[in-house]
Amino acid sequence: MNLDRVSCGDVPNQINVIIEIPAHSDPVKYELDKETGAMFVDRFMSTAMYYPCNYGYIPHTLSADGDPADVLVLTPHPLIPGSVIKCRPVGVLKMKDESGDDAKILAVPIDKLCKTYRGVESFRDLPGEILNRISHFFEHYKDLDEGKWVRVDGWYGLDEAKKEIMDSVQMYREAPEKPNF
Fold it and tell me: pTM for the full model?
């Protein structure tokens, strides 16, 4: 599998997302290794929680934390790690943790892949319960990890999500050494 050849998509309106963690999976954090491009087990979560949606990243992006842009993908079924899905952003969850600012772009599959979300243009179009579940997960998934913390600042709209995407594309392009993701 050669994921480094996957583009970031037609940013910022359509993004390719490489899935690291399936929705509703066991409490295991997977992460793409920057050196090898291989999927590694990053850690076993201390809390008895599962990811409320698919979790992945936009290839060829670089966020302020040194990782690619994080994306939460809502789908009717869990996706396998390493799969690529074409999505469109609908919002962003802004947070801070022990390492600094941390944003999670919220996305849904393009209409051609899944008609379930065709009426969703903004995070505001989603049921509040889904958004609350996601926020709650990120507020508490590090609770039992010593020295780690998270503060959720809230949900922001499509313009903020697109800005986050374009900023991360620009940071990757300007990086003197391109990470292997």
Answer: 0.92
